[in-house]
Amino acid sequence: MRPKPDDLQMFISKCRTMDIEELKSNIDDWEGKGHCSTQLDNIDIAKIELELK
Predict the structure, then answer these.
(1) Residue 24: CB partners within 8 Å, gap ≥ 6?
(2) Which of 5, 6, 15, 53 could form a disulfide with 49 if both were Cys (CB 3.0 to 4.6 A apart)?
(3) HEC assignment per residue over 1-42
């Protein structure tokens, strides 16, 4: 199941408001829990946001 565009925008906004350390910590946590394609997509998005910081 793919996330709705609004859910995706909310996730991206949430990542953008995190500082670098918080985002790194959350990515590590999500990687430990992420096993479905949506979670893996979110991890990829979060990593891109981290690179942009």
Answers:
(1) 50
(2) 15
(3) CCCCHHHHHHHHHHHHHCCHHHHHHHHHHHHHHCCCHHHHHH
Q: How many residues does the chain have?
A: 53
Write out pLDDT tens, residues 5-42.
Answer: 788 899 999 999 999 999 999 999 999 986 788 888 99
Q: Which residue has the tokens 């979670």?
A: 39
Report yes or no: 20 and 50 within 8 Å, Cβ to Cβ: yes
One-letter amino acid identity for 6? D
Q: Rounded to whole angstroms, how far apart are CA atoms 28 and 6?
A: 24
